[in-house]
Amino acid sequence: MRRNYLGEFEELVLLTVAVLHEGAYGVAIADELERQTGRSVSLSAVHAALHRLEEKAMLNSRLGEATAERGGRRKRLFTVTALGSRTLQSIRETRNRLWDSISPQALPALGL
Amino acid sequence: MKPPRWADRLLERFCAPHLLEEIQGDLHERFERRRVLFGERAARRQYIWEVLGFLRPFALKRKRNTTSTTYLVSPMMLQNYFKIAFRNLVRHKGYSAINIVGLAVGMAVAMLIGLWVWDELSYNKYHQNYERIAKVMQRGTFNGEVFNGDFLPLPLGTELRTSFSKDFEHVMMSSWPGEHILSYGDKKFTKTGRYLSPAAPDMLTLNMLAGTRAGLQDPASILLSKSVAQTLFGEGDPVGEIMKIDNKLDVKVTGVYEDLPFNTEFRELTFIAPWDLYVSSEEWVKQAQDNAEWNNNSWHILAQIAPNTNFEAVSTKIKDLKLKHAPEVAFVKPEIFLHPMSRWHLYDSWDKAGKVSGRIQYVWLFGIIGVFVLLLACINFMNLSTARSEKRAKEVGIRKAVGSVRTQLISQFLSESLLVVTVAFVLSLLLVWLILPFFNEVADKEIAVLWTNPVFWLFGIGFSLFTGLLAGSYPAFYLSSFQPVKVLKGTFRIGRFASMPRKVLVVVQFTVSVTLIIGTVLVFRQIQYAKNRPIGYDRNGLITVAMNTPELYGRYNALRSELLQTGAVIEMSTSSTPATHLLSKNGGFEWEGKDPNLKAQFGTVAVTHDFGKTVGWQFVEGRDFSRQFSTDSSGMVLNETAARYMGIKDPVGKTIKWDGRSFHVVGVVKDMVMESPFEPAFQTVFMLNYDWASVINIKLNPTLSISESLAKIETIFRTFNPGSPFDYKFSDQQYALKFAAEERIGKLAAVFAVLAIFISCLGLFGLASFVAEQRTKEIGIRKVLGATVFNLWQLLSKDFVFLVLIAFVMAAPLAYYFLNGWLQKYTYRTEISWWIFAATGASALLITLLTVSFQAIKAALMNPVKTLKTE
């Protein structure tokens, strides 16, 4: 059985690939992550995470087209696989269940 | 606006190829955007950081080659590799021979030197108490010079044994090693041995083959080595037999021990007699013991320290013993110390400042030479192999085109070079085995190949592996990286600097060789210089016979007249030392005008009236001892150095006092070289004394053949001295022995120099042939255009001559520096003249030209039609 545990960063990357849909490749993912989380994200970290996710069969990849700003090099485009999507779903369900079981008084007020 | 180039290069270097495109693309894209947003500097900085960020396992890890299913070790391919390797060797026969023989010779030399060094370092290790045995020695300072000696007073041994019993496990007295006559029945032999304390067998851990180690407890006993026991008793059991020492002492054999190995200090200890027997039989020794003579330094003392202490601590404790008991010699500041057995052999000489050195210098010297020769041979081998392997670029191309993977090519080339190295290794073992007897003779050793020693094999095989892998690495890793297309199309070229290491090698090789040649020439010049020195007496036809039995004493005149009657002898005399040795030096001399502070020391020799005529000394002043002057019984003959040393103008007729006795000088002789021929003669005095005699000097009749004369003399000795074998020594041989150490070094240096030159020339020859082959086309075209053979010869030889000249310029100061240092230790030394360098340089050049010319002329004589036609 494949391990379907995901690290926090991996989860974020996997989600971002889903967000970007067809145009998910290294730079785009890093940019999107920076925009969404507000932290600076290095390309190597993203590539490492993509590599791991692909090994875990949660991502598929193919080579895309080349652009001039890449010096004529092709990009690798990623899509989420069924396993990836199922894992994301199950994480979300777990989280939801947990959220639902928290009694409103248990969390300190957020200043609202 | 590009990202930093070096960072890109770095990325290309470390990043796995299958990931490179996407990663680099992403990096560049991001760089481009950052440049627009934050400016170029920031973008470049961040780019570098991003690149470094990719130093992670996933990016470094290469993708496994999934397409190839070739087995690395398939029997078919292995067979092919061997076939190709063999064909390559056979096809270039001369070349392979040069390569293999060169390496084998280098390895053999290194092995020989290694064995020699091993032998030197394992000296004396036969004794199990090696770590705790020491020689007791004394040190003194006299006229500003430090003297070290191992001759000690007898009571010191008693003192050490009784007052320091906690520090010493054994204290052993020893007579100096000397020749004695051992006789059993009518068998008589002269053998070397010593009188030792009963503790000796335990201390030296003798391996007893019969009897026990306690055998020396009985004062009338003797222990024999196995070889002596066999010569005296044959196969019978010697234990319990009664035999004689020096025809006067009856002793019982109480044990037989295994012969001590050649590489021990005691290798000449062929029998051991008890110390107490020595004391009771020699009156003067008994006197020294009874009167506790602390000033009679005539014996050796050996000691084994207790397990809980060390040499330094004991040395400090016993330091002042001599000073305490013999305060009258306080002016030389005597110090007693222990000299550990581990240092006996390699650190056995002290210079005038008291600094210790010895054979360890030669161990280092030859060790370094060995490493150099090995290095030369090894690099030579690599160079020739790599030069040759460039020829095989096409083979690599074809193999790759047909489907070889790189790892296959790597393993092919590596195993091929290992194969060649293995052949060389086996050959070198064979060479060592063949050369070893000759080497042993030159080096005065009994070395055997350490066939069963794992260290030996570890070194040998380790080195072979190292050389093989290193030599094979160039073709294996460099050639296998060629693109087959380029190689097969012929557009591939070897870099401009590919020949650079080869040139450096030639220079290094010739530097070493030229240094060795200069060294060898100089060592021999130095020996010749000392040999040509006038020695002040005539050693031709001079023989000496030791006076080792009581029968020879008191019958001087009878023996002399009998000997002269035979006609085989021109003259005979006795003396206290042979002319080739100065055995006794004494102080206590006084003369008129002597500086009262000078502690004068003279060599003292007792002679008879006929001594002068026997050895043929030459007078500068005065006359020889004569029977016509009865006053000559208190006469004295000085050598020139002694006359100078005393500072007397006209010494003849002057009076000299020695220990209260007055002597008058009758003559002055030319200096006789009795000690080292490299040192100035020692101030020596000769006195008449018929009782103080230890050798008989005989001058043979030159008109008779030596064997005839000796036969006649032997019959006389047989009647006078029936208890002793007739053993004689030729003085010229004894004198020649003084050069043994220098000659040994000279011979070894010569052998190594020849080998170094040989290996260097092999390398040069190989390289020259390689260069000539590479330039075949060029030479062809030059010939077509009108170049003469001489032009071409010049063209091909020029480079090598230039390299050898550089080597010479480097070697000359190097050799001068080392040899000047070596010569400094000799007082009589030849000068380092310029012509030695000139001659060596010229001969090195000549050898180079001869080596290179063969190839150059061969290449120049080739028919251009043939060379240009082939493609």
From TrEMBL, chain A:
InterPro entries: Tscrpt_reg_PadR_N (IPR005149), WH-like_DNA-bd_sf (IPR036388), WH_DNA-bd_sf (IPR036390)
Higher taxonomy: Bacteria, Pseudomonadati, Bacteroidota, Cytophagia, Cytophagales
Residue span, Transcription regulator PadR N-terminal domain: 19-89
Keywords: DNA-binding
GO molecular function: DNA binding
Keyword Ion transport in record: no
Protein name per the record: DNA-binding PadR family transcriptional regulator
SUPFAM superfamilies per UniProt: Winged helix' DNA-binding domain
Keyword DNA-binding: yes
